[in-house]
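In response to reviewer comment 3 from the previous cycle, which asked for concrete evidence that the modeling workflow produces usable outputs, we include below a single protein chain processed end to end. The sequence was submitted unchanged, and the resulting structure tokens are shown without manual editing.
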Amino acid sequence: MKNYTKPRVILFDVNETLLDLGPLKASINKLLDNDQGFKIWFGMLLQHSLVDTCINEYHDFTLIAGGTLSMAAKALNRDIDETEKKEALSFIRQLDAYPDVPQGLQLLKDAGFRLATLTNSPLPTLLAQLEYAGIQHYFEKMLSIDVVKKYKPAIETYEYAAQKIEVAANEIIMVAAHGWDIAGALNAGLQAAFVERKGQSLYPLSPLPQYIGRDMVAIANAIIKSLCV
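The workflow returned the following structure tokens.
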């Protein structure tokens, strides 16, 4: 593997990488009365989190989620109130891990890797999510960008994670199901692994990650195999 550095830490995105957003998707689509409602809203959420980063503002992901849900409703000619928004978005804290996640995480721990998370969600949401999914015990650190007050894929977020984990950036593998997160990690000098969750794809104008797999077990096995290179 070109420019290979033995990884020490596996850093995970959370939403759609570890956790199945199915219940949240269903609630947003129902609220917006559109089977593309979640896709429209989630794109707006990511776009406007990056607007905050670009103009040196910061609102936590929960606030941006609510604001962009109102925007999506307006775009789809739907009238929604604050109670409906709050109820629809509450599912973000009640998501199950994908079936492959516990086995993949255990394989990596058994192989001696340190595991941590890095998410755009605020820390209270992250902790609630991991506890609900029953996977919090796998991670030595559960990190949120709300300390940095910049959103992934800003380089500062990955630099913050490396600092908190106390390893060099190139000793970290960022695992994510989003092409933009993979692109950001590679730009920051991390290694990267892309999980091919349904509907997700790599950004074709960014370098390829070192690892690609259909699920977390495949990713774990590919990383472990690379130790023998």
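The beta strands are 9-12, 114-119, 141-144, 172-176, 191-195, 211-213. We consider this sufficient to address the reviewer's concern, and the full set will be provided in the supplementary archive.
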